[in-house]
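dumping the sequnces here before i forget
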Amino acid sequence: MYNFTFHVPTTIHFGKGQISHLADLAGYGKKVLLCYGGGSIKRNGIYDQATKILSDAGLEIFELSGIEPNPRIQTVRHGVELCRKESIDMVLAIGDGSTIDCVKVVAAGAKYDGDAWDLVIHPELIKDALPIFSALTLAATGSEMDAFAVILDMTKNEKWDTAGECLKPTMSVLDPTYTFSVPARQTAAGMTDMMSHAFENYFSMDDGAYVQKRMAEALLKTMIHSGPIAPEKPDDYDARVNLMWSASHTINSLVGEGCAPVWSCTRWSMSSLPSMTSPTARALPILTPAWMEHVLSEKTEKQFAIYGRNVWGLTGTDDAPVTREAIARTRQFFTETMHMPATLHEVGITDEKHFDVMIQKAADGSKGSFVPLTKEDIVEIYRAAK
Amino acid sequence: MYNFTFHVPTTIHFGKGQISHLADLAGYGKKVLLCYGGGSIKRNGIYDQATKILSDAGLEIFELSGIEPNPRIQTVRHGVELCRKESIDMVLAIGDGSTIDCVKVVAAGAKYDGDAWDLVIHPELIKDALPIFSALTLAATGSEMDAFAVILDMTKNEKWDTAGECLKPTMSVLDPTYTFSVPARQTAAGMTDMMSHAFENYFSMDDGAYVQKRMAEALLKTMIHSGPIAPEKPDDYDARVNLMWSASHTINSLVGEGCAPVWSCTRWSMSSLPSMTSPTARALPILTPAWMEHVLSEKTEKQFAIYGRNVWGLTGTDDAPVTREAIARTRQFFTETMHMPATLHEVGITDEKHFDVMIQKAADGSKGSFVPLTKEDIVEIYRAAK
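..and the predicted 3d for all of it:
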């Protein structure tokens, strides 16, 4: 196990009705920038509920709305301007991971003299931020409890992740009933996102991090158990609860710290496809099994066999068939059980000439630590996933 | 799953050499009360290392030494006096869970006008505390990352646990190499302690907390894997690492929040046996399997069968034999693998007349939530464990 620092300062209020804790924001100042995406939080009543709690607590509310599913730097800049102009004390995201990501960079931008895009490209410039709060409406990215944010600049056709200790939210409200109205397809995409985070942390060559690996398996088993229930029975509280709480843990340090993983599929999906119509989560169920097959070797077989036995409950004693079955089950789960796309073609990548652009955009650090990969390897994985 | 608030503010610096982070204490004031037990931290060099780092960081060091394995309220009072007299800014425990427990109540006592024993009996009086730091030397109680402390008053023959949000340490250093010198018997006792914490959180009737249960299984599997290695090969870094990090997670909220468990065996062992020579951990391997057998019924069989399959890897499809085997394996693991005592007789409880005292001391809240138990039930469990 590698040395690490574990620091998860976010207070989570989990369960039905926990939105009442938005009143606690009064302890952080007077002026709150309430940030959200489209109108869904107005339709489902969360907006009215939240603004009443904030007003009753004596807070003055300013608004940044229209945050995109892949948040744009232009929206971030607009939020930063608002924070400066109105001397905002704190930011509150109500929405999914994209909304929270946007708000994080707004909070840091408000404390930075230059342009907010600098903070996306150079995370080391993030030194301070306004206090960040969130009320989550989709179980997926884990942004409600982590240090990361992904921002897009369409003018540059670039999409990058940034991070900073001060981007970890001060408090997040996780009410699983808020995800009852999430459509089946989006529920499945969120599930793919969180499952990929778990995979990225799980597959590392560090055998010493035994407890982290067993906990990653616990999260994967929970997703495999609850994932198929939620799209079928949208108001199944138990399924929504377990997906929501698993999503946070896949990326909040619990299963990653000590393993020093360098993420691969998630980062390729993210930084390679900014101009594609599909969100990151739609590319992951395609690339992940293709990646598994590509990196499978005598050296990695043992890890995949452990995965097959501990996550899928496979019982064979010979590693090779267990391994093959584990990868097949992974693909089958994504495509047949969760109805996610199976090929890059299905998400609009119909021509190999896209690969060059995708590879060019792939960050240097995105080549994987489990098995280091060359650009040629990545192209082969893309090709296998056509 | 029940509603809950998750708040784990302790920063953990984990791994070899992380003691250097004691220099960070300079950010919290000038005067530190360094607290420890016997002379072992002087013999193994940790004392010299720590005092040099603290001095180099410009801190003025005061000392409270001789903290007992079951810390006494008299020692706490002495610590509180020192804090007041010297206007101490922060407290630092170097040692095991007992040392950290003592230091927690010292830190709260320094901010309380009355006698520190009030804070043990009435946790609700704990409102504030000096910043608490620790460097851990034994994987066991999880005190380095939780809100709890257990204090003994020999004059009253009473031992109680108390708790407070402000008792959660600000920072703890977890260097697994510091546990290399822990004797085999003490390593095993520590393992029993952490395993019992996991059991207490794991066995609840709340089926909805799926992810917490899978994570508790992950911790139990890690202990069963690493537990037997550490006493045999004391300097096995991987084993020590995984035990140390599991111990913290069994009690830091991760597997307990959302399940609302009311602890049973741990609290009986603790509050019932203050005047016995054996520490809590020595009674647990005796009482836990006896408790399992006592509460086994048609209603609870399913949970024990899940335990058998997911933790012990048992494969039978019929619940009854899996359940019996799971309980047998638990007992066998404690007594044969970890060489812990098998009967109350072995830990000095040779006469049933002790049971009356033990029962009298058992706290009202210690009768279990998995299966509510009467005093008669508890006596039957003691009797079965003779």
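The first helix of chain A runs from residue 40 to 43.
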